[in-house]
Amino acid sequence: xxxxxxxxxxxxxxxxxxxxxxxxxxxxxxxxxxxxxxxxxxxxxxxxxxxxxxxxxxxxxxxxxxxxxxxxxxxxxxxxxxxxxxxxxxxxxxxxxxxxxxxxxxxxxxxxxxxxxxxxxxxxxxxxxxxxxxxxxxxxxxxxxxxxxxxxx
Length: 153
Description:
Layout: H1 3-25, E1 29-31, H2 34-58, H3 60-65, H4 70-85, E2 89-91, H5 94-115, E3 123-125, E4 150-152
Antiparallel strand pairs: 1-2, 3-4
Helix pairs in contact: 1-2, 1-5, 2-4, 4-5
């Protein structure tokens, strides 16, 4: 199985578990059966992949004014939309969708980090201790001791 497909399947499973956690924690958010939960999680994942970026772009001025907090409203709207699409997945109110979106976001982020499939990319390597005798050499030829801290983001 290709590595990218494996990561997508893991993310989808994590999203499914996150939606299940939200249905257990948030009043007004529930699923009639496992099939409805799995379909709702799959649809939510597809919306987050294809529809959410467009919504973020269209709401960019509001996102900037609210310092990104409007993202939670977008997440709630997508969760409400999923609830309208599937009869077996119920979202009773905007408040339930808002709280459910928060729970899903936090649970997904934590599980993705633990599973090592986080969407956070990039890494910063902070390493210092350039030897005093190396300071007169060009930067390319300086020896750097590799005992500094590493910050992965």
